[in-house]
Amino acid sequence: MTEKKPLLGFIGQGFIGKNYSDDFEQRGYTVIRYSLEEPYQANKEHIRECDIVFIAVPAPTVPTGKKRGDGHPEVHFDGSTIREVIGLAREGAIVVIKSTIEPGTTELLQAHYADKLILHSPEFLLETTAAQDAKHPERNIIGIPKDTKEYREAAERVIALLPKAPYTLICDARTAELIKYANNAFLFIKIVFANIFYELAKENGIDWEVLREAIGSDPRIGPSHLDLHLKDDPPGVMRRRGAGRSCFIKDFAELSELYAKTFPEDKHAIMVLRGFEYKNSELLRAADRYINLLEGVYGPDTGKK
Ligand SMILES: NC(=O)c1ccc[n+]([C@@H]2O[C@H](COP(=O)([O-])OP(=O)(O)OC[C@H]3O[C@@H](n4cnc5c(N)ncnc54)[C@H](O)[C@@H]3O)[C@@H](O)[C@H]2O)c1
């Protein structure tokens, strides 16, 4: 006998929600899609019918309007949309948060919504290849807020639903949450590093392209995030100045804030993280790229000389 397929819900129909929902449907699942766009708005009440509800709505990091002791704009994670939409899932439903969330968020939400099982599954797809990445994820990670048989079974159930991935992990929710921030922070640093070395190379008459290829051919480093060209750059022009897009700026700011709150006395580590933030903001300002995103995270003056 084959087990009846669970009815799936997907709240949020952006890059993650649309592509995962399409893939689930192509594999024979029924998905109720709810988001702010038409035609999905009308499905709000139907989320209550779903056995497993995935969530991929925005979870921004925004300025508090205050400055920290070192003059850096204070930011905070805003999980209010996630908190609001979880209430749409019925009692006993499994809720899987795909949005990137500050470490500790799953535990807090689970305490607030004790009638549902809340899990976190960090997402690694790229906007440029989202449909393909959703079909072939590189990692399926499920974070559980409590290490019990019930949560482990729920996590196994979710992993069985997701497209197969070469790497699978069930871990505590805080680890799952931090994996995504650590990943993005590492790549953010790599982009800023590439920009700094590009300037140094240029000033010293060194061909950055040769340097880049040689550095990236070290398997411990790899070629990704060192290329400063954008697709439509004319030859010799490199406009990828700074780490931008919707995730890099907010996730690095969040991680840096978390570190500063956790270790307020560790001045040098805070200085290192802030240094990357300031340099990145400066690069983005100079290239006039992602200014709205930058100001959405830090407020109006960041990166201005
Ligand atoms: N885009 C990426 O490459 C990517 C990769 C990994 C993780 N993430 C994270 O995943 C999350 C979502 O990203 P995305 O790119 O899919 O978002 P998106 O901006 O493309 O789409 C967001 C969706 O959420 C819906 N939404 C917003 N508020 C809502 C509400 N109150 N009720 C119902 N629906 C609502 C919108 O209508 C939209 O369909 C973010 O936390 C992001 O950081 C994104």
Question: Could you outline the blueprint of secondary structure elements for this entry?
Answer:
Elements: E1 8-11, H1 15-26, E2 31-34, E3 52-55, E4 61-67, E5 73-77, H2 80-86, E6 94-97, H3 105-112, E7 117-120, H4 130-135, E8 139-144, H5 149-161, E9 167-172, H6 173-203, H7 208-216, H8 245-262, H9 267-287, H10 291-298
Parallel strand pairs: 1-2, 1-3, 3-6, 6-7, 8-9
Antiparallel strand pairs: 4-5
Helix pairs in contact: 6-8, 6-9, 8-9, 8-10
Bound molecules: nicotinamide-adenine-dinucleotide (NAD).
Nicotinamide-adenine-dinucleotide binds next to helix 1, helix 2 and helix 8.
Give the N-to-C terminal Cα separation.
Answer: 68 Å
Q: Gyration radius, to the nearest Å?
A: 21 Å
CATH architecture of the largest domain: 3-Layer(aba) Sandwich
Assess the beta-strand content as a share of residues: 5-15%
Which parts are unreliable, with pLDDT below 50 for 5 consecutive residues or more? none
Overall 3D form: globular
